[in-house]
Amino acid sequence: MAAVYSGISLKLKSKTTSWEDKLKLAHFAWISHQCFLPNKEQVLLDWARQSLVAFYKKKLELKEDVVERLWIYIDNILHSRKLQNLLKNGKTINLQISLIKVINERIAEFSDWGSQRNICAVLSCCQGILSTPALAVIYTARQELMVALLSQLCRSACRQPEGAVVAQLFEVIHLALGHYLLIQQQQVNPRRAFGDVTGHLLQPYLVLRHLLSEGTWTQAGQGQLRQALSRDIRNQIEAMLRGGVFQPELLSSYKGELLDHQEGDTKMGALKSLLAPMDTVITRLVEAGYCEPNLHATVVANSVALLYKLFLDSYFKEGNQLLCFQVLPRLFGCLRISHLQEEQITTLSASDWTTELLVVEQLLNSVANNNIYNIAADRIRHGEVQFCFYRRLAELLINHSQAPVPAWFRCLKILISLNHLILEPDLDDLLASAWIDAEVTEFRTRKAQEALIHTLFQTYAKLRQVPLLFEEVLGVICRPAAEALRQPVLTLGPTTVLRECLLELSPSQILDTWSLVLEKFQSLVLPSLRSDADMALKSLSLSSLLHCIMFNMRSLDSSTPLPVIRRTQCTMERMLGELVKPLLTLLLDPPDPEPELWLQKVSDSALLLSYTWVQVDTMLSLNCSQYHSVSGAPTGVALEISSLPPLLPGVETQLWKEIEKLTAQFNSLGRYCLEQLYLQRMKRTLLLTSFKSQEALQTLRSDAAYIVDSGRESLDQMTVASWDGQVETVNALTYPVAHWHLMVSNLTILTSYLSPDDVRHLASVLLRTLPMSKAQEASADAEPYITLGKISKGVLHSPLFPEMQSLHSAFLLCLIERCSSILCSGVQGDPTLLSQQLPWLFEKDHMVVAHWEKRFAKVETENIECRGEVAQNLLSLVKSDFPIRLEGEQLESLLGPLEVLSTLQLDSVLPPYHVSYFLLLLLMAVTKVERTCSSLALKFWMTCYRLLGYLQRGRSARSVLKVVYVSDIFEITLTSLLKASSTLLIEMDDPSWLEFLQVIGTFLEQLLQMLIQIKLSLVLNFGKITAFLSRCTPYTEAASSRELENQNPLGRQLLLVSLSKVCQVLGAFVKERKQPQEASAALPELLQQTTLQMGTVLQLCSAPGPGGWHLPSALLPAVSTLLEADLSQHRSSGGAEITQETGRTVLFHTALYQDVYSQILLELPVLTRNAQSFQAALQFLTLFFSAPEIHPQKDSVFISLFHSMRKVLADPDMPVQVTPEIKPYLEALFAKMLEMGTTEDFRLVMRFVLQGLDVRNMWKAEPQAVLSAVTLLELLLTCPLSGEKARLLWRACPQIVTALALQNREACQEQPVRLTVVGPILDVLAALLRQGEEAISNPHHVSLAFSILLTVPLDHLKPPDYGSTFLKLHNVLFSILQCHPKVMLKAIPSFLNSFNRLVFSVMHEGRQKDKGSTEDLPVVLECARLVERMYSHIAARAEEVAVFSPFMVAQYMTEMQKVTLYPAVKGLLQEGIYLILDLCSEPDILFLRASLQPGVRDVFKELHSDYIKYHKTKLKGEKRYTV
After folding, report:
1. Strand 1103-1105 with 1108-1110, pairing
2. Of 789, 796, 793, 790, whose CA–CA distance to 811 is shortest?
């Protein structure tokens, strides 16, 4: 037996034992089971406690490290699992108060002096005590200890410590607050709780809450405090304040203090001395000294909003509105802005204003949201005490304008919402400081300003006092002020607000407002306008206001009352005669000398009003037949010399010439409005009955020319400015954008009357302003307003652009010229020779197209053959040292126009343009590029060849063949690519190179397909192509190892791609045998030559590997093409070769095919990582399996291939997303395997399927094996089976369904649900039920499907997963309904349960949520449509289902009553349930009304009412037309 240690207690107390030995002995005694000591745990804890207490009371001298180790010793005991187990078993461990006091003193030292000696260990001890309920009793039993601890902890945190202590400190605070909240809830003395909080905790915890809210310890890069812990502590502080300061028992005290009357209740007991709780709280709040001076004001401000929120949470109810208001002025008095009126504080900084105004906003929001302010009650019962406070607050805000602060606008908005009379006395100052004179640039501030203006106009619109509001606006605008410093009155935001308001106003209010602006303009501005620049600016502001009013009022029509029409007509005549014409007269007679600013602003104002008047006059004339324009009706008038509409009635043409000269001096609003006037005249001219007369056409052309010429110079400047679309904001900076917007918006009118030069100008501007690079496009999209780039991009993508033929053709020419100029800039040496070889490259403007038009004319009229010339010139250039060389910058500059070309619809251009672009793109594609730009060159070439392919699919594709032969294009393309590939610095397996090979292959395939389609000299073209390919000997001859190093592998791949495309296209054509008789022998021979050469190149592209030659996976499609061509030739000619040994016919490249087959079987798992390579491998295997003559003699190809595929499908690394892409190829392969395989082979497949479906695979955590079996089964079901194979499958059907049910149950029990297994199981089950309509004879096997449907969960799924799972469940259910109706009727309860799960899940997912977007709604809507469709199919079986229809309706109504659905979802479900109601008889309806629960019954009555009103009526209407 082991020795038992004793006497430890004496040694620990002995003075002779060193402290080092004592600590070691104490540690050993705690951890050792061999140390026997009565009540050992308590003894050891007491020894450590006594030692520390004696040390801190100066009764014992200890070294610092000994003290630290004693704290650590206690901490280890408190956190030990041994102590926790003892306490759980009921043993009592007592902590003495002396230890608690020492802990509190140490934390106090830390909070007062920042002393960190042993603080981590002390906090850890405190955390150990508080986290153990049996030990925490010592704190909870003595409340003063807990309050002291909380106070010291909080003050420690407010010192903002750093390092490891932070996390510990806040964990302890969190625990301590949790315990204190429990104490607070159990406290029966409300005064004590109030005193503890206000006396000790209020101030430090308000500071701590502020620091936590500011993220002091949670900022990025610090990571010292978790966000969740910070949030929890803030919530605990609020709960502590609510439970201490705003207890329900204190309500009477607050009433006595705030409502100025004493409660008559004498049973208040201890609450009698609590006379002023709010004063106590506010006094403690505003006291100085409890935090740093720079924090004090912010802490007070943030605390004010918190205290008011807590007060309302605790005491607000109906009848307490006045009490809740009375707190507001007192708390508001704590803010510094409240002392501005008393001049105790002179100024505040911008940050201080922001902080305080945010608090005021929160206070006012609380008032508004809780309906504390009732205007009538305040006026009648309380002497307008609330109104007076809000009025003083409004005066304060307006007198101290803070336009840069968004909260200032929001505070004013809330005050207007409370009562418009609060701000009405200062309405003019409000409009001046918040709108007219405000300088607002920041986005958030601008939004706040717009919201304020919107509320202002909406309020006065409801009061029908909009003219009064406009009178104040006009008063502010007409005040003496430095107008040049003012922002435009009507920018986008205010204009939008004003537009919404004006559309809602009655015609009388609109006319009153309109007349008011006219009067103010005439009386205050017009008399003083001459030579006064300030007045000129005011006139522009008033003109903008008039424009906004007139443009956004509701139009008159024939139903408008006649007095309104007459008054409108009088106002229009008055405006024209008394305002517009005087302004134009003043403009033509300016003061001497002419001040530039005055001239510009007066012209802007006069022309804006002129344009506005003409536009409104035209609109009224068109819409209202009773309105008679001053200028005469623009429609129905015969065209005479004098009947052409003027720009403005009563203004002579000569005067407009002078105005044009004036406006030409400025790129401003006036010029823009003059363009609008000319445009309006064009529109009015086109409305005339005989607008095609010579004079009218001349006028239209001159007006269109003026509009284009007016802004020609400004568009050359290429401004980057943006315009908000408002007429009032057009200035020198935004004028080019506005001018371009005007022209583009009216292109359909302008282009018909523009000269060719003007059209070319428009096309060049369009090309110049288009964003050419991704960076430019991104910056243009990021700009919220209109820019030149955005406008031009809109034109490019417009479906109308190709319809405007003149502009579209001019734009195409500009693109040709841009690309040609860049190509010409890369010419090396003298361009004279090149200009002789390629004359069309150096043609300018429309001459490029004219060149080809002449060539086509010669071909048609003179029958001159011109194809050889162009091709020979290009081919000679490509074969020699190409004279054009492009560097990186030139390639970049060409990519922009090519991207533009990709956007255009080039498939419908005219033949000359088609040929021009085809040859230009071909020339670009064969041009030499700088050797260092490999990746950029590949991108450039891919773009060129994609566009060439797009052109080949176009309407005018045959026109190219009038210039060059297909074989010439083929040779030019491949010659240039083979030369260029030798200089490319890129790897063979680079993704960009592989993509380039695909693009080249597609282009060549389209080229050859076009040749086949038009059957143009097939033998000649294919003969030349085959001859050219055979001449590429450097790429088709075997070489020594040294020569192989110097050869070009990229060129060999290009050659292989071209050969495979020739084989593919020509092989398909030869197989069809539709060529003329004379060519019947030549084309197969050419095909045979090509296949032989292709086989040679493929072998050269292969590399020696284990077991044979290895071919890069990117070249697998080429092998498939060669094999397909070989097979078609072999089967049509009766065999290629006959072996002497076996007498079997073999193909020319049998060894190659067998090597590739072996390689694919080895590499199949690797190939699955690339979808395209895997598809190519499957395609080859399908072809290989269909040719038994090339199968190896050793092994069974079926067995080898099946095992390889099974391993691939069972591979856990196989990416799931590949499956949908490869599924068609897998289906084709398995169909071919099962078609040619034996019955034994099929038995092998079935055996492995059933083994994979064994439930033990899921128990072994091998879901991929299950998924492999399910996939195999799904593939089997897609294959056409007959005879014994079909019997084998359906004989195993019961076993399969049972296995699927077990697998599904196991997958659904996992968390989260393994949807990757459940989904395929449901797909296979649906396919099995559909195809087994006649084969499955036992209804029990079909009924097993219901257990699967009822197991799959539909809740807690992500929207995409939910949608796909729902669809699969629906498909299974629908398969049962359609293919097994008898089983459905026998198991109708299970069927309805399964269907109701779908219905209820749609209701759950389609319910309206409190917070959340509707992004997931389309998925739910699709599911709801499926439910509706299922209802219709159920209703179609009326006789069988009618008896269950009331129960279906009852279940639907019971669930519907629980949720509020989105209208779209509800509509679809209702349409479905209406079909079930059609099956219900009258007794069924009575039964439902009697049996449903009261709440559900009401919902049913509403549904049935809608059913009768809408559905029944519609049904009766349809029956009328039914035979």
Report:
1. antiparallel
2. 796
Nearest Cα neighbor of 1150 from 1126, 1173, 1129, 1171 is 1126
Amino acid (one-letter) located at 1011 = L
Q: What is the pLDDT of residue 1413?
A: 61
- Per-chain mean pLDDT for the chain: 82
H-type helices in 267-341, by residue range?
Answer: 277-286, 293-315, 321-332
d(CA 534, CA 519): 19
DSSP type of residue 1103: E
Distance CA 1244, CA 1229 (A): 17
| Secondary structure in 3-state letters for 1185-1200 | HCCHHHCCCCCCHHHH
| Helices 350-369 & 406-418 angle (0-180, nearest 10) | 30
The two structure tokens encoding residue 1382: 């008898």
Residue 1280 Cα distances to 1234, 1275, 1294, 1323, angstroms: 9, 10, 20, 18
- The SS3 call for residue 1073 is coil
Structure confidence at residue 1139 (pLDDT): 42
Residues 6+ apart with CB under 8 A from 921: 944, 947, 948, 951
In this structure, what DSSP letter does residue 491 have?
-
Rounded to whole angstroms, the Cα distance separating 771 from 781 reads: 10
Using the predicted structure, report yes or no on whether residue 628 has a pLDDT greater than 90.
no
Task: List phi, psi (to 5°) of 1081.
Answer: -90, -30
**What's the pLDDT at 1427?**
93
Q: Determine the pLDDT at residue 517.
A: 92
Residue from 618, 630, 625 nearest 571 by CA? 630
Decide: 78 and 129 in contact? Cβ < 8 Å: yes
C-alpha distances out from residue 328 to 261, 309, 333, 338, Å: 18, 10, 8, 12
Contact 698, 644 (CB under 8 A): no
Cα–Cα distance measured from residue 326 to residue 256, given in angstroms and rounded to the nearest whole number: 12
Helix boundaries (H) for 826-866: 832-837, 847-861
φ, ψ for residue 929, nearest 5 deg: -125, 160
What local confidence, expressed as pLDDT, does residue 776 receive? 61
The token pair that represents 1116 in the structure block: 């697998």
Average pLDDT over residues 1383-1411: 85
For residues 357-385, average pLDDT: 91
Query: Residue 911 pLDDT more than 60?
Result: yes
pLDDT tens for each residue of 1014-1044:
887 888 888 888 888 888 865 555 444 444 4
Lowest mean pLDDT among 127-141, 471-485, 890-904: 471-485
Q: How confident is the model at residue 872 (pLDDT cuts 50, 70, 90)?
A: confident
Q: What is the pLDDT of residue 1423?
A: 92
- What is residue 778's predicted lDDT score, i.e. its pLDDT? 61
Q: If residue 203 lies in a helix (H) or strand (E), which one and from where to where?
A: helix 202-213
According to the model, what pLDDT value does residue 317 have? 86
Please give the Cα distance from 1178 to 1275 (Å, whole number).
Answer: 14
Q: What dihedral do alpha carbons 806, 807, 809, 812 form, nearest 10°?
A: 170
C-beta separation of 15 from 62 below 8 A = no
Reported as half-sphere exposure (CB side, CA atoms, 13 A), residue 649 has a value of 17
Strands (E), 1273-1313: none
